[in-house]
């Protein structure tokens, strides 16, 4: 079974998020929390992370292509946790993260893709976007930050931009971390109860929660209009953190395996170097 096949949004599909179960695990089960060394899912996760490490190293050595990973989701969906998991098997030399916040005054003086384009990965790199250009059709749409006509045109603009990037050697994978409203409530409660998590909370999270239905509608539009053959969206059931981590890392590994990076042919005379080495 390929995770990417199971979880990809087919191009032009009309997405209704309530049809997607946030607790889905594709038949995988785990006693993960118990910390059993032989737990099948834990073993598979470790294997996947090791494979990711090998593949990203080869991609870096090859130095000709790159991977762009877009992470989106409601507050508490687990963007940070996913990044920590994926990065645990990657070198910071070639696997990087950019977080997109409210645009600065300078960024606002440009088109919405300007800051995004500057953060795209160099050849050999994997770049993870923690939030992305999709905020410009999500928070911007929900809160009417620009006129409708402006955000409406952005779906096509995004598709054209992503096509351009893929034509220039970047593989794009976009993950929507799908949590239920009930699970979000539990996570906010857990954060309130844990002093080490207080820094992650703000009253704005509660305010945004009131817009849950509007965000759902905005996500449905973005997933439906911008899942393309060249830059697919994946809907990741994210109520179970272990499954979210497994699914995202598996899809990245599957994509890297399809890319099949190769070490470059050495430009040196190995035999001669061996002879010369004193
Ligand atoms: P996070 O929630 O990702 O951990 P923050 O709490 O700093 O980080 O939130 C970043 C904020 O920036 C979010 O509220 C997000 O909606 C906002 N943001 C990101 N991009 C844009 C944008 N293009 N326009 C307006 N707001 C944006």
From TrEMBL:
EC numbers, comma separated: 2.7.4.-
GO molecular function: polyphosphate kinase activity
Residues annotated as domain Polyphosphate kinase-2-related: 45-262
GO biological process: polyphosphate metabolic process
Keyword Transferase included in the entry's annotation: yes
Keywords: Kinase, Transferase
Superkingdom in the source lineage: Bacteria
NCBIfam families registered for this protein in UniProt: PPK2_rel_1 (TIGR03709)
Xref: PANTHER family: POLYPHOSPHATE:AMP PHOSPHOTRANSFERASE, POLYPHOSPHATE:AMP PHOSPHOTRANSFERASE-RELATED
Similarity comment: family membership: Belongs to the polyphosphate kinase 2 (PPK2) family. Class I subfamily.
Protein name, UniProt field: Polyphosphate:AMP phosphotransferase
Organism: Koribacter versatilis (strain Ellin345)
